[in-house]
Automatic annotation (TrEMBL):
<protein>
    <recommendedName>
        <fullName>histidine kinase</fullName>
    </recommendedName>
</protein>
<feature type="region of interest" description="Disordered">
    <location>
        <begin position="223"/>
        <end position="244"/>
    </location>
</feature>
<feature type="compositionally biased region" description="Acidic residues">
    <location>
        <begin position="231"/>
        <end position="244"/>
    </location>
</feature>
<feature type="domain" description="Histidine kinase">
    <location>
        <begin position="20"/>
        <end position="226"/>
    </location>
</feature>
Amino acid sequence: MEELLRRSEKLTTVGQLAAGVAHEIRNPLTTLRGFLQLQQETNKLNHRHLDLMLSELDRINLIVGEFLILAKPQAVHFQERDIRFILGDVISLLDSQAHLHGVEFVLNASSDSAMVHCEENQLKQVFINLLKNGMEAMPDGGNIRIKLNHDEENNRVRIEIKDEGTGIPEELMPKLGEPFFTSKESGTGLGLMVSQRIIQSHKGMMDIKSVMNKGTTVIIDLPASQQQPESVEEENNTDNEPTN
Ligand code: ADP
Ligand code: MG
């Protein structure tokens, strides 16, 4: 019953979102059609037109990509995973891009292990979204501090992502996570909403605090898995450290 309710709820949100996505895609499609028509009638497409067409196509691709993460009917596969490794993977993925923009990731993991029952790729998507937002908020570079804390007493894992960027104006705070709310010229305004949904589906919480011209902190709180890393299935660890 609960599952059914949850699924129907999800269908509604995905349905609502689809309407928004269709709307968002129609604008770049109209532009593309206009240029193609221009080409057909006058054979006068220039480089600038082609650049615009490419960026409009990229925009469609981005919107559809983020939407698919939510709407994909394929089964999600939850497994026991160590959040440290997920964060590590995402950081190495984005590191070179970050360096190019003068951004440094500083990871501070206070515990030995932080196992979470999760869909690894979805959590990676969340961290990619959040780290990218942090980078985009620091046009002149700076540090993004990522703090991981495993509260063993309460069985929670807490991840803090703190940037030194522009911050978010107070009046925009309620808009965060609203689909298509973006302050960026080429933003989709889907990243936070997708992240929020993923964290919710992991029975976690996401919170955002921001101080103008100081930076923004995103806090994620997830239930820790009871399972110990030694007993993790499907992991073919040959480099297990001896336990002490
Ligand atoms: P997008 O990044 O495509 O704009 P998001 O959903 O990721 O969409 O973010 C929505 C908006 O929230 C951003 O456009 C920006 O205004 C604000 N925002 C999110 N994260 C940050 C951050 N770390 N620093 C400053 N503003 C942020
Ligand atoms: Mg974003």
